Each structure stands twice: as C-alpha cells, then as structure tokens.
Amino acid sequence: MLVNVPGPWSPLLGRLALSEIPYKNLILAPLFVVIVLVAIALIAGITYYGKWRYLWKEWFTTVDHKKLGIMYIILGLVMLFRGFIDGLMIRTQQALAVGPGNNGMKAMGAIHGYLTPFHFGQIYSAHGLIMILLAATPLLVGIMNIIVPLQIGARDMAYPYLNALGFWITAAAVFLIMISLFVGDFSHNGWFGYAPIFEMAYSPGVGVDYWIWTLELIALGTTLGSINFLATVVKMRAPGMTWGRLPVFTWSAVTANIIALTSFPCLQVALALVAADRYLGTHFFTAGFGGNLMLYTNLFWLWGHPEVYFVIIPAFGMLSEIIPAFSEKPIFGYTAMVLATFAIGGVSWIVWLHHFFTMGMGPYVSTEFSIATMLVGIPTGVKVFNWAATMYRGRLSFSAAMTWAIGALFLLLIGGLSGMMLSIPAINYMVHNSVFVVAHFHMMLLCIVYAVFGAVIFWFPKIYGFKLNEAWAKIMFWLFSGGTFLVFFPMFMLGFMGETRRLDWPFNPQWAPWFDVQEVGIFVYVLSVLAFVWMLYVSIRDRSQNRVHSADAWGTSRSLEWLTDTPVPFYNFAMVPHINARDEVAWRREHGFLESNPDHFKAIHMPNNTPMALYIGATTFVLGFALTWRIWWLSIAALVLSVLLMIFRSNRGDPGYVISAREMEELDRESKAHMQEKPALPLPQGGFAGGTATAYSPLPHNNSPSGGTPPSSGQAL
Amino acid sequence: MHSEETVDPSQVILWSDDYEGHDPISTRTFGFWMYVLSDGMLFATLFAAYGVLSYSHSYYTGPTPAQFVAPWYTFIQTMALFLSVLAYGFAMTALKNGNKAGVINAIIAAMVLGGVFIGLDIHDVLRMIRIGATPETSGGLSAFYALTQVHAAHIFVGLLWMLVMLYQILRQGFSEDVVGRLLSLRMFWQFQAVMWVFIYVFVYLWGYMS
Question: In the CATH hierarchy, which fold is given to the domain comprising B25-209?
C-alpha cells in the first residue's frame, strides 16, 4: 500500500536526516544564521521587556476579530516580503544568466547565473504559492476580519473561536513553507504543479510533499474562515442593516467567501489525490495505468480560477470604500456594483479552462470558455465605470489611500485588457506559457496589492488611533509604481518576443536589455519596501501628532465602522447602532446625529480567550511536517491529538463572560475620554453640497429606549 | 440618503436595544449548512474525478466495476445507513419531547447501524483486495476507492461525533451547546446518507450495469 521512497527511511525519523539541512548552500546557510540571530534577538527582547505574558494573554490566545485580523495582516506582510525576495532572486538570476556563453558562479554550482536550475525552480514555485495564498489571502482575510464585523455592527465574528482556529492553521501553513527553506527542499515544479512531474517517479524528494501539505493547510484555514464570514454577515447584522444597506466592501466579502467556501474543497481534493499518488501508489494523475494527467490540471484550476476572484473581489470592495470617502460622494450605482460583484463571482466558476486552452479540447469547448472569460469584462467594466462616475464631480482629495486606489484602477485597466486578449484562444495559443501571461496576472495581483496598501492606510487610524504618514505613503506609492512599470512593461515586451516563463537560463541575447531594465525596476521596488518601513517608523514616532480624536478619522467616511470610537474598543460598539440608511455614518453626519451617544447601555456577552486554537494549529503544523517526512507515528499522534483537543474543547465549551450595563457605561466613558484626550480638534466638515449638514437637534432624554443624548462637548455640526 | 431629506429627530432610532439576544442555535445551524455546502463540493469534485476516471481505459488491464462491485451486498450497507438516519430521526423527535433516555437509545441505535455500515465497508474492501482490485491497480480503481472511502471516513467521523454527543448529553443534559450540536449532527448524518445515494447509484449500480 505505502509507496517505497528512494533513499534512507527510518521508523523514528522517517526521511529526515541531518544531510537534509542545506548547510553548504551559500544562500540558505547565511540566511539561516540571520534568521536565527533575529529570532534570538526577538526572544531576548520580549523576555527582557517581560512581554511574554502580554503576548500570550492579548494575542496568542485571543478570539477578538480585530487582533486576529492584525495578526493575519502581519503574517501577510511578512510573507509578502518573503515572496518579494523570491521575486528579486528570480529577476537577478535572469539578468545574470541571459544569453549564451555566460558562465555561472562556480561556487554556487550554477551553470548560468548564480542559481542551479533546481534551486531556481524552488524559488519560482515558492514565489507563486506564497504571493497568492500566503501573502494576498492573509492580507485580504485580515482586512475582512477587522472591517466586516464593524461594517455590519457586530460585536465579533459569528464564531470567534473558529476565527482563531482558521488563523492558527494559516500560521501553521506559513511555518511549514518557511521551514522548507532550511529542512529539505521545496517543490520545484511551479506553484500549481505540473502533472505528472509531481509524481514520485519524477520528484522523489520532499519538495512536492511540502507543497501539498502547505496548500492543504491554507485551504483548510481559508474554508473555516469563509464559513465564519458568511455566518457573520447573514446572522450578526445590526438591526436595520438590511441587505440593501450593506456596505459594498461587505458585499464583496460575501461574494469572495461564497467563492472560497465552494472552491477550496476542490483544491483539497485535487491535492489529496496527488498525495494519494505519492503516498499510496494510486494512479490518479500518472501517465500510465489509466491515470489522467489533465484531470489534475482541471481540478486544480477549477479551484484556481475562483481563487483568483476570491483575492480580487475584496480588493474591489476596498476600492469601493476608499473612492467614495475621498470623493465625498456615495458610491455610484450601488445596486449595479453589488450585482457586478456577484456576476464576477458566478462567472468565476465557468472559466477555469482558459488557463490551458492548449490542452486541445476542440473548438466548441474552447469557444464556450473563451466567451465566458470575455463575459468577466462586462461586470468588471461596470465596476470601473462606477468608480469613475463616483469620482466624477466629486470633491476629490488625493490623500495617500486615494492615490493607491487610483493606481489600482490603472493596473486593473492594463491587466483587464491584457486578460481580454488572453481570452481569445487564437491569441492564447501564441502566448501560452509566455511571460506575457505572467505580466498580465501580475497586473491583476498588483491591483490587489495597491488596494490593500490603500486599505491599510485608510483603515489604519480606525484600529490604532493615529494616521500613517501621508508624505511617506505617497513616496512609497511612487517608488512602488516606478518598480511596477519598470519590471512589468519589459515583461509584456519579452512575452511578445517569445520568452517562456520560468527560464533559469534565458538563451536569447536580444532579451538582455529588457532584463536589465527589469533588474533596475526590482531595485526600485526595494526602495519602496524601505519607504514602507520608514513610513511605519515615522508614523509610529509621530503618533501623538497624528492622533485621531474623533470616530470618523477622515471626516468624510461613510460606512458604519467609522461610527465607533477610535481606536475600536474590544466590544466594537458600546451600544449596537440602529441602521437608518445605506451610508449610515454619512447619513448621521448630514442629519447631525454623528455626535449622539446612547443614553443607556445594556449588558453584553463576550467570548473568553482560549489557547486551544493555537494548540490545534500547532498539531496541524506537526501533522504537515510529519507527513512531509513520512514520520508515520508522529503523523498519527498529531492527528489523534488534534481530534482529542477538539473534543476536549467541545466538552468544556465556552460560557463566555458578561459585561454589565453599568460596566459598559464606564468602559464607554473611558474609551471616549481616551479618544478625545486632547481638546477635540475642529471636526472636518463632511457631506456633499458644500459640507452642509442640518442643524443639530438635541433629543429628549426620556425618548428611550433608543433615543440619543446631546454630545458632552456640544459640538454642533 | 440625501441631505434634503428631512428626518424628525424625535422619531429616529439611533441605538438598538434588541441586538444582544440573537439566537445562537440558528447561527450555529446556518454555519453548519455552509460546511455542508463545502462538503458537497468536496464530494462533487470526487464524483468528477470518478467520472473522468471511469472510462474503460481507466481500468488499464485490471478489473472493471462490473467485475468488482457487489450491488446486493452494498444494498445491505444502504439499508443500514438509511435505518441509522431513521434512528437518528427518532433521536430528534425524542429531543423535541425532552426525552433524554429516548435520545440516548436512538443515538446508540444509529451508532450500531452506522457501525454495521462501516463493518460491511471494511469487509467489502478486504474482499476486493483478495480478488486483486486494489487502489494501485488502475486509475479507475483509485477513483473508486477515493470516493467510497472518503464517504466511509465521513461516516466514521459521524460515529465518533455521536460518541462524543452521548458523553455530553449524559454530562450536560440538553444545554444550548448540546442541542445545537445534535441539530448539526442531524444535518451531517442525513447529508452523508444523501451522498451515499449518489455513490450507490452512480458507482455501484451504474458500475454493475457497465
């Protein structure tokens, strides 16, 4: 039943041996030393400042959606950096190796450039996998995690514990792919895997196994998260938050998570079948014995294409929040926007075949998938026109968040139009597997990155209570855009010149100038990373100047998350608001209710923190690692332990705790006092038509149960 | 939504009084429906793989379904699973009446019948291995095993879940958590039976006819 592995295997350690640690590799060995030193410094620092207890109590065991969201975003940013370094290495290899007759670095054992083909293969595989699943996905999930409950007026996600579980399983996936750097190898056959190269006969190492279990873990974590998001939006909305009033970002989260919920199981099955081939000797995707190579490719892209829209749709949602706020207008064509989002989500299921038109399924099938792919352009076009119409005759302010959002629109245009070209099979046959395709989807994914940076700048003050430095955010924007242009414009050109993707040795010397331009571009990106770090440093250093003293950080925000205190207290809303309009905050601002506070409070019920999610996440990491190295006893132990932990948690349950109405009143007063610590600055004027608002009308106290009281500061809008 | 619109400040409701008491069981049940949807996609993908890998060439030179499936034998499995679902249904009616002993007895009956299903499944797998129809034989057989054994694994998880529920009923009685879990388990168990209908028809009956 079990497949015999080439090379040594022992019952205790499986395939694990000291020789699997690449201590001779001139890149990995120094990197390992650096990471160990950084880790020691971090641990020493945390111990010196006595922060372990704080980290454990406030972060590692938390079930608070905002803290989990922040951890998701940190995870995503770290992996974005790792993926970026992979990209830097790919670019440098190609720039060094281009053309015949160049000699590789002997010390590295390379024939061309500085990387061996096997190492280069691992790098581009890791780059793709990390950027899509371990950078973009956690960043988007993190932002959804923070913002969706706030936008619908909920206290937390529907299942706070499941939320923590999803995060820690994602973290386990991140640890698994990071450990593949230093223990064994990573997969060398692309992030989506080519059948049958991933079969045992052709890839006998552990690389493909790392790839399988990393993907399985991230798929599990994301599926759990998507259940949670859907239940949250359906079940936890504040009274009055009808479907027609749901903010567009929340709508996009709904669409994205329907996609995730229905598509990730396909990935799980596809990879489980690969694992069966490699571990049990089955013949799903083998070239003989009745296996079917293209079945894998179909199953993978059956998930893969919806996944692409799973990452782009939340980015569209973020643009739909940022652009209205900085245009001081409601979103143009709300209904069309929501329908377009759902249309994209629906079409995402019927286009997967355009990833491999060259499979040769005949003109009829190709035409169907070609037309379905072109259909995507219609709702996407609707969205672009809606954003443009939102800005039309708006009072635009080009703050950093808005700059990133507009940059995203340009990338969407280039990426979308090149995508329309690729949807035509006749063109696709010509450019299939060329870097033209790579340039196209980098435009789309960078559109997401732009939207994410815009969203981080936009929502940062809501979470931390101070704004990021505008000037440095804009410097970073221009450096990042310069890098994008210099790297990907030549890539489109190289695609037309016939460069196929994943070349460790680009043989054509005529390509050399373009590679040099790309190399310059990637170092402009390096500058933008430095600008990002500097922006964070400057913003944190000057945080007292950049403090936000009102709930509405930008003065022109529209949706519900801007109603609660800044920074958001752990209970989100002292009293859950009753929703009266689509853009509730804009509506309250225009009618003078923005400063109204609830005149009474109610007891609320909150979940307890628990380390159980962390423990189960740790067991899934051990499970993935043990399966990769075929340490059977450890795999079984980890699986049994994770089930026992789940049963243990289930038996104990979580009664949660209650905060009484009196305590809530006290907490609310403290939170408001903290927010307004300095004398409140004059509130920026909001609303359209000259920033006017109706006169403030104090409400009578006895108008409860749901009336308001005049604000203590008495600021009339 | 426009600033011209007039709002009577004395009439407007700004804060909600009735949010805190939402129904945890309905939230839990909805989430479990979402899980069932994803589980359905999991089976759909496996069915797709089975469909692609059930051409005559998919069986290479090994046995074809007509040679290795035993529909009458599997019909007993079907009956065991259906009766188990029925027994679980009795547990739900007993739950409605607050009849603790009834719930426990019915769940034990459902477990026994589910155990019969698993036992027959293992026996059938052993029989197939004896006649040389192993998963390594051909792509078609790999897909057959994947589909049927993933289903069997779901049944196994269901049985484990029932065991845990028995413990929790005895320990906590019909607390809100326990009732919510029993309702989710009902969906899970019925869904597995529905999946088995598809497997029985498309894998066993169709395979026998092919």
Answer: Four Helix Bundle (Hemerythrin (Met), subunit A) (1.20.120)
